[in-house]
Here is the input.
Amino acid sequence: MESFLNSVDVESGQDDLDSVARFRRWLRDHHRAVTATAADLALARELRTGLRELLRGGTRSGDSTRLAALAERIPLRVSFAGERVGLAPGATGVAGVLGEVLGAVALADRDGSWRRLKRCRADTCQVVFYDWSKNGSRCWCSMAVCGNRSKLRAYRSRAQSPSS
Here is the structure.
């Protein structure tokens, strides 16, 4: 799920979903031997955008109506494997891959780990990361990079402003 959400690199501008060819390469790199069409690419981009919006700044402020409409186009089913019950894609191809993503989101929400998945606050980064901190309060993907840049900018801004 994180790999799908991070298939765009805001800082470099590289987007693995910017063309059908690049999307096919991303699928292949993730061991998914499926073909992709322009319609599949559009659905994947919409889903990624919607899920990333949900993670904006660690809040759940995205447009849930739009995501619900997208989810209706991606079938899921209940699976039974031994004593385990789970969610599985209800289709093959790209819809199946996106079904895996939605299933992972639903299960992460159920087990509480979804609330720890966040998008870096740095406008130049926006990487999706899992917040392992004890109180779940991280706001940058890396304190050494994005956190440091933010704190340095705030320090310089304070240092340059005239004292009252």
User: Anything to note?
Assistant: Strands lie at 76-81, 84-89, 117-119, 128-130. The chain has one domain: 2-160.
